[in-house]
Amino acid sequence: MELNDRAELDTSQVNDLGRGGGSGRGMPIPLPTGRGGLVSLVITVLVALVGGGIGLNAATNGDGAGGEDLEQSCSRDNPDRFGNVKCRNLLYVNSIQDYWKQEYPAISGRQYEPTDTNYFGQAVSTGCGTADSGVGPFYCPADKQVYIDLSFYDELASRFGADGEFAAPYVLAHEYGHHIQNLLGTNERAGQGDQTGPESASVRLELQADCYAGAWARHATESKDKSGQEALFTSITESDIKEAVETAEAIGDDTIQQRSGGGINPDQFTHGTSEQRQRWFRQGYDRGDPQVCDTFGTGRL
Ligand SMILES: [Zn+2]
Questions:
Q1: Cross-strand bridge partners of residue 148
Q2: What is the mean pLDDT of the chain?
Q3: In angstroms, what CA-CA distances link 263 with 43, 165, 202?
Q4: What's the 172 CA to ligand 1 centre distance in angstroms?
Q5: Alpha carbon of 178 to ligand 1 centroid (Å)
């Protein structure tokens, strides 16, 4: 993939909260992370599905407890900006939201509501409670925002072997898929269904988010920058798509369970198998249309 040097990024879509960001008043209580990655990814979906049930409602639009001035670092005047992980991820967020701004009205008859991504380090207070980095990236339905500790990508590479550059946009597009589901009311309905198991509401929700990520990837090179004049990506190749698919494979429930040495237990599935995650991402990508992401109505999950 190549990013467009001339693109003007919309920094209002990302908040850099810095370490322990969010509350600006001392450290939130971290969640226990247990066995690192495995537990992390499992909790990710819980957070995504809890929907404000765990209490705290600290404001999250922090004024940057140590955060970086993205306006400056990610400006077009800085020729090295795409060497900065924060600027690259900002571009991905801009692209994903520009796609949904175009596409969401077609599937819902309503306008897309943009939402922010929050970069944090170590721990963060959200509308879904406090979380630490161990939970991995997540979407909080209660405050409708995305949260990510960007060091997650290092863990994805080292622990899960998903070291391709396109892993990052895939992860963000998946989280924004949860935002779309929240706007559509899909995750509220799914929250009433089974939360674990091979055909659970949770698995259907997660696979749909993968499919939405694929639909975005298909159209990502069409997305425009803040000015509406410049493309954000100058190219995305089949090898980028392969990296997204490999990431989907690496974080399938069966693969994670197997890696943790406990054997495969479908009753505990929350996100779908590696095969399913790859297939649904591909489905969204190949067809380029979120309407083909009906994981709730399908006979073949
Ligand atoms: Zn998810």
A1: 119
A2: 87
A3: 19, 30, 21
A4: 10
A5: 7
pLDDT 10s digits, 119-177:
999 999 999 999 999 889 999 999 999 999 999 999 999 999 999 999 999 999 999 99
Predicted local distance difference test score (pLDDT) of residue 58:
34
CA–centroid distance, 6 to ligand 1, in Å, is 32
Question: Ligand 1 centre from 282 Cα, in Å?
Answer: 16
C-alpha separations of 174 from 72, 169, 171, 194 in Å? 28, 8, 5, 21
Angstrom distance (rounded) from CA 88 to CA 86: 6
| 239, containing H or E segment | helix 238-250
Tell me, what's the pLDDT at 99? Answer: 98
Largest Cα–Cα separation, the chain: 52
Mean pLDDT of 113-120: 97
Which residues neighbour 52 within 8 Å (Cβ) at sequence distance 6 or greater? 127, 128, 140, 141, 142, 143
The rounded Å distance from CA 40 to ligand 1 centre is: 12
What is the distance in A from the centroid of ligand 1 to the CA of 78? 33
- Kindly give the distance from the C-alpha atom of residue 125 to the centroid of ligand 1, in angstroms, as a whole number: 19
Q: What residue type is 91 in one-letter code? A: L
| pTM attached to this predicted model | 0.87
Question: Per DSSP, which regions of the chain are E strands?
Answer: 2-3, 14-19, 117-121, 123-126, 129-132, 138-140, 145-148, 233-235
Residue 17's pLDDT is what?
A: 94
Q: How far is the CA of 171 from the centre of ligand 1 (A)?
A: 9
- 87-108 pLDDT, tens digit per residue, is 999 999 999 999 999 999 999 9
Tens-digit pLDDT profile for residues 15-28: 999 987 654 333 44
Residue 203 corresponds to which tokens in the numbers above? 């698995």
Nearest C-alpha neighbor of 213 from the set 182, 247, 173, 178: 173
**Ligand 1: centre distance to CA 44 (Å):** 7
Q: Determine the distance separating the centroid of ligand 1 and the alpha carbon of 175, expressed in angstroms.
A: 6
